[in-house]
Amino acid sequence: MPDTTEQGLAMLRAKQGFICDMDGVIYHGNRLLDGVERFVDWLVREDKRFLFLTNSSERAPKELQAKLGRMGLKVDESHFYTSALATASFLRSQAPGATLYVIGEPGLVGALYEAGFTMNDVSADYVVVGETRAYSFEKIEHAIGLILGGAKLIATNPDLTGPSERGIIPACRALVAPIELASGRAAYYVGKPNPLMMRHAIKRLGVPVDQTVIIGDRMDTDIIAGIESEIDTVLVLSGVTARERVKDFPYRPHYIFGGVDGIPPLEGGV
Description:
By secondary structure, the chain is of the alpha/beta class. The chain has nine helices and 15 strands. Helix 4 (83-94) runs parallel beside helix 5 and helix 6 (137-148) crosses helix 7. It is globular and about 60 Å long.
């Protein structure tokens, strides 16, 4: 059962490092969620180490920094790590200099270019898929042809859906599914809960595992990623997971809050 005792809350608040998901935790689309400013102010005031870790591959850290800035939050670019960066790092370790056919947004393409990769839509070594609104039958068809010709399929993250200002929208895995089904090839998913991405995040945070906590809105990525990395987990109900759905999973978060506003103590509290 999630810990709701005063002792449990005190242990959570005493943690040195906080890994925070973004979609459904910090914002929905272009709307900052309630209590986020108070939460970030508390992190800074208490000198916590924190990292915004997102499975979304659409934006580069600088763009995420600018997005939060437009919402009134000033956070240094160094506090962001994305599945696009993790995907670029993974491919660089596996196949430096490979050529890629990419279905995705500038955050993914830029990360891959910076890692030394070139784009090739004729005889690519890898097909790489991330979130995008520029999705078409032609791109699906082209990706399938490359894969049947020998290209390997990589996806930035396994999220099926994500939260937005308009409600639930399709995410990366929903976009990859037609390519997997038609090609008969399963994608390798780099983002949470893949331990690769979590190791990168924990290393960048620079805090011992027993002093780190992950905050997210998804049981199937954020919470299981924390459990498998042996760090405490916080589920917030401000994203895609409703409280009644928690019992459907064979594992439990250490803490559950309506949103991140419940994590800092109230003014004058402990």
